[in-house]
Amino acid sequence: MFKGILVHKDEAGYRATLQDIDETQLGDGDVTVRVEWSTLNYKDGLAITGKSPVVRRFPLVPGIDFAGTVTHSSHAAWKPGDKVILNGWGVGESHHGGLAQTARVSGDWLVALPAAFSTRQAMAIGTAGYTAMLCVLALEKHGIRPADGEILVTGANGGVGGVAIALLAGLGYSVVASTGRLAESDYLQSLGAARVIDRAELSAPGKPLGKERWAGVVDAVGSHTLANACATTKYRGAVTACGLAGGMDFPASVAPFILRAITLYGIDSVMAPLPLRQQAWQRLARDLDIAKLETITREIGLADAIAVGTELLSGTVRGRVVVDMQRGYS
């Protein structure tokens, strides 16, 4: 038996509870992992609260990320003692996830923990940081260089935003952080933001085209914010869309695409192919300032995850939340 969170949906309603779980409940997989650290993302908050239909089968362990040590394996790539990371692949949605002390998954879904990181640091990065790196890789592939102009990062106080700012600033880009919490400006500038703007500049319905401002964009918000970011991106610039904190709609026009030839890149972290995942984690190991990572990280125990998952949806959580799977338990 081990501790974990299970999400239920039955005649008693939708609920997440911390309870004992038997390993026989974990389902299929050729690798078993002792989970040392997990993390909470916006999607995990949705899964815990049921605010959106993230969980597709019940009961289910939520948690789209984990890092830990292999204990059993029949997969050729992994052996007991290997340190591994998992992000996405439907874990925490249709397959038992990372908010339990043990996980059983397909070995094809795992990435080797880079030597530069501990399992805790890997989860301080988590899907949010890995997604931020995918956005940076897309901007680089598009050919955007620091000399081309400012990069806008929306939802800057969130996990994707914080890591994106740190990564981009470290690579020499001038970053403009958009946030609804201007009181956090000093914090965002400590991560590397050159300027901080109020999200109200972008969150209301806007014009099909605006003044050209950004060479590139990392957007975790969606809705009017994404539409306005596209409308104000420079000629032949690029926008990466990776989130929907502001809504799933996209009330835009074709004007920025046919008059300024901008490109909108969709960033999917869940089903990204293994070579791209490996590239992203290798670049995170090379380019992310660990000291900055620590400043955006809050640590909780597994017993706190349900409450903090609810808190995440309120938009008041800064940066990243890591979950110590052993805190308070043997």
Briefly characterize the structure.
The chain has helices at residues 42-49, 119-142, 159-170, 185-191, 200-203, 223-231, 255-259, 274-287, 290-295, 305-312, and strands at 2-10, 13-21, 31-40, 65-73, 83-87, 102-105, 111-112, 151-153, 175-179, 195-198, 214-219, 233-241, 263-266, 297-301, 320-324.
Query: Could you name the CATH class of the largest domain?
Result: Alpha Beta
Number of domains: 2
**Cα Rg:** 20 Å
Give the averaged pLDDT, no decimals. Answer: 96
Low-confidence stretches: none
Shape: globular
Percent strand equals 25-35%
Number of helices: 10
Give the structural class. Answer: alpha/beta
CATH topology of the largest domain: Quinone Oxidoreductase, Chain A, domain 1
Q: Architecture of the largest domain, CATH level 2? A: Alpha-Beta Complex
CATH superfamily of the largest domain: Medium-chain alcohol dehydrogenases, catalytic domain
Helix content: 25-40%
- Provide the succession of SSEs: EEEHEEEEHEHEHEHEHEHEHHEHE
Report the count of strand segments. Answer: 15
The termini sit apart by: 11 Å
The main pleated sheet reads as: 7 strands, mixed
What is the topological layout?
Elements (H helix, E strand, L loop, with lengths): L1 E9 L2 E9 L9 E10 L1 H8 L15 E9 L9 E5 L14 E4 L5 E2 L6 H24 L8 E3 L5 H12 L4 E5 L5 H7 L3 E4 L1 H4 L10 E6 L3 H9 L1 E9 L13 H5 L3 E4 L7 H14 L2 H6 L1 E5 L3 H8 L7 E5 L6
Parallel strand pairs: 8-9, 8-11, 9-10, 11-12, 12-13, 14-15
Antiparallel strand pairs: 1-2, 3-4, 3-6, 3-15, 4-5, 5-7
Give a quick set of tags describing it.
alpha/beta, Quinone Oxidoreductase, Chain A, domain 1, Rossmann fold, 2 domains, six-stranded parallel β-sheet, 15 strands, globular
